[in-house]
Amino acid sequence: MENKAEVVIIGAGINGCALAYELAKRGKEVVVVEKNYIAYGATGRCGAGIRQQWATKENALLAKKSVEIFEKLSDELGYDIGLRQGGYLIAIHDEEGMEQAKKNVEMQKSIGLPVRIIYEDEIKEIAPILDPKGMETIAATFCPTDGHANPFKTTYAYAIAAKKLGAKIYKFTEVKDIKVKDGKVKKVVTNRGEIETKYVVNAAGAWSKEIAKMVGIEMPNKPVRKEALVTEPLKRMFDCMVISFKHGIYFSQQEEGQILGGIPSPEEKVGYYMEPTFSFLKYMAYMLGKYAPPLKHVSILRQWTGFYDVTPDALPILGETSVEGFIQCNGFSGHGFMIAPMTAKLLAQLICGEKLEMPIDRLNIERFKGEITEEKAVVG
Amino acid sequence: MKIVCRCEDITEEDIIKTIDEYGCETLAELKQLLRLGMGYCQGRTCLILAAKILARKTGKTLDEIMPSFRPPVVPVEIGLIGGEDGE
Ligand SMILES: Cc1cc2nc3c(=O)[nH]c(=O)nc-3n(C[C@H](O)[C@H](O)[C@H](O)COP(=O)(O)OP(=O)(O)OC[C@H]3O[C@@H](n4cnc5c(N)ncnc54)[C@H](O)[C@@H]3O)c2cc1C
Ligand code: FES
User: Fold this and answer.
1) pLDDT tens per residue, range A336-353
2) Where in chain A is the domain with CATH 3.50.50.60?
3) What structural domains and CATH numbers belong to chain B?
4) For ligand 1, is residue A16 a contact (CB within 6 Å)?
5) ipTM score
6) CATH class of the region A4-46+152-219+312-369
7) What is the pTM of this model?
8) Hey, which of A198, A259, A367, B22 has its CA 20 to 30 A from A120?
9) CB neighbours of residue B73 within 10 Å
10) In a mutational test of the pocket of ligand 2, which residue from B3, B10, B27, B44 has the highest number of ligand atoms less than 8 Å from its CB?
11) Ligand 2 geometric centre to CA of B2 (Å)
């Protein structure tokens, strides 16, 4: 293993791998250390939906600029990432929801997103299996350029492209400590040796809180367990992702035809508890049956658990900290896959001293010292 | 050509090629890359075969390689498990 690098990235999820690529592309010597294997964390357990319909401008812009990158990514990386743009259909259930939706749509349109409010007829046209009554919906918002990519393929695509440009990715290498001297990061200590470095990027997902502690930084993030399930493959029935902020449900039909989705479990727990629960399975099946009655005869094959790395405002924590060279790239809550391409680009620009394509100061960890604006458009 | 995973149509060559190309050391990585064991039978027939190939290629023991199952262990219908009232 290398004992020196310009940048050490902790975590080989979508964010660590995308950043490794963006840095290697800029000629930086990068080492990624991962305690398990690539996409072991939330990335390998996620819905991999790509949504630009956010309530805060920061998230909406990060997602929009990421979609622009996703659209060219298979070509850029020379590896098919399985991008499909079937849109996101977001259910609106009542007047209050309509109010918020109108506000969101106005902001989203102002940054150039092709979003619109649709009603029962069009909902049924876009996804004939949906039952607006069972969904208890009065309307929906729809953005046709939202979509989905294969999380494994996208992460491997970045990882392989990064390696070709000279980045090193070490699996089964766990960070145990980070040495700081005179307020600057010096060394990353792993179970397989030490790496001297100028920059350490904390891209450890739901474990980022523990990494930050190693340099004496307290983080407000919480690991929140989320379950998901997948059915047997079916012939293509609909192309969009269906979600509801009120019910917390999301589901879509994947490339190979299976339905994948999730909903907050009735017995939501905070902490690293991995066991799947029957209550989730039962509740999700019940809600799926209400949203899309034809699915009642479909079999569920598998259920699993992953972790959201949740911040108090559901916005990511990006950028520099009080420890020189210690860079945050975490706190992605339920949407760290969809904004990874732009996030990686911005952090690479920051580390390389380039001009940033959009400001990220408002996403700095220091914001929690003041008043925060919370992202309301969250699911799952 | 020896089929290892019938549900997802994956051969022994596919597995060996993927192990060599990506440096896989775990069944989880083969699942991610090939959809191995993610078909209708949930790997009941193929995972042990794939584990043997991995053991041979990596020098690990079968115990180190064999996976944990993700329930439901048998496929269940949405309508049956969800019921009508969500109770
Ligand atoms: C069920 C579910 C559904 C989701 N759906 C979506 C969705 O539809 N769209 C979307 O955009 N997002 C979704 N998300 C969120 C998304 O998965 C995450 O935000 C994103 O994958 C985070 O990526 P990451 O690279 O930052 O972290 P992770 O993928 O979690 O990677 C962190 C890595 O760090 C490693 N690590 C931890 N500690 C150490 C250590 N000490 N040393 C070395 N390595 C370490 C871990 O092993 C892990 O591989 C979902 C999440 C879940 C759980
Ligand atoms: S034989 Fe591999 S999943 Fe069924």
Assistant:
1) 999 999 999 999 999 999
2) 4-46+152-219+312-369
3) 3-82 (1.10.10.1100)
4) yes
5) 0.84
6) alpha beta
7) 0.94
8) A259
9) 10
10) B44
11) 14
